[in-house]
Specification:
This protein is an alpha+beta fold and 238 residues long. It has one domain: q2cbj1_9rhob like domain (Jelly Rolls), CATH 2.60.120.620. The protein has nine helices and nine strands. The strands form two sheets. Strands 1, 2, 3, 4, 6, 8 and 9 form a seven-stranded antiparallel sheet that branches. Strands 5-7 form a two-stranded antiparallel sheet. Helix 2 runs antiparallel to helix 6. The longest helix has 14 residues. The radius of gyration is 18 Å and the shape is globular. The two termini are 17 Å apart. Bound molecules: fe (ii) ion.
């Protein structure tokens, strides 16, 4: 499946909705998650089953179930990269630095649950040449997704903060409530650069949100603070 934006459109806006290109691999990733995640003693067959159980769990229970999760995480980076090979090749070439261990985040519905405040990825020391793909493991038809600000708005806010010597000022924190995460079909993901502000908001649902994300950049571009503890070399298959 070909994405519907040009690379210059993506670079100008800072983020775009992209589509899984290798559905077989992405489905294998989802199956591996369902197989390896431990949720009580109940039977789980579909991603919706897992989402339902997680929606009822507290943070401590979620943390506990994440412990056996390492078997799933082992080749998550590769599975994520191989799900979007053409887009990644177009952006960064075949030779890449990829995040050694991609992340899986589980967001539980409800007002008192932790949320991700608006932030941009370069805060964590990745290089300005990095891209992130954030892919939910199911469709998102509530407000449990993630929102992104376009590049122009993000840079304007960051420059203002820098001038005032602030990081995540009340203005940035208040941005959270004003933005609505987009709804996505299963197989849709968001690709974004490390400058765009993004986060999520509390949401109501009886299903938790489960999403994977991976960072990558061209092998020929300079790194910033990250080294081989964080990154590994990866060559896209021909
Ligand atoms: Fe983030």
């Amino acid at each position: 499946m070909k994405h519907r934006f040009t690379i210059s459109q993506l670079n100008k806006n800072g983020y775009a909705v992209c589509k899984v290109e290798n559905f077989k691999i992405f489905k294998a990733l989802q199956n591996s998650f369902i197989k390896n995640i431990r949720v009580s003693n109940s039977k789980k067959k579909t991603i919706e089953d897992v989402r339902k159980y997680f929606a009822k769990m507290n943070k401590a229970e979620i943390n506990k179930s994440m412990i056996n999760f390492i078997t799933f995480n082992k080749n998550l980076s590769e599975l994520m990269i191989k799900s979007f090979p053409n887009l990644i090749k177009e952006l960064c070439g075949k030779e890449l630095f990829v995040q050694r261990r991609a992340h899986t985040t589980i967001n539980v519905p409800g007002k008192n649950q932790a949320k991700q405040v608006a932030h941009y990825e370069m805060i964590s020391g990745i290089s300005p040449f990095t891209y992130v793909i954030w892919a939910p493991l199911h469709e998102i038809n509530d407000e449990g997704g993630a929102y992104h600000f376009d590049l122009k708005t993000s840079l304007k806010i960051m420059k203002e903060e820098e001038k005032k010597g602030l990081v995540n000022s009340p203005r940035v924190l208040n941005l959270m409530g004003k933005k609505k995460p987009p709804k996505l079909k299963f197989g849709e993901a968001i690709i974004f650069n490390p400058f765009v502000l993004h986060g999520n908001i509390p949401f109501n649902s009886n299903l938790a949100r489960i999403a994977c994300n991976v960072r990558f950049q061209s092998f020929s571009k300079p790194l910033l603070q990250k080294n081989t503890d964080y990154l590994k070399y990866y060559r896209l298959p021909s």
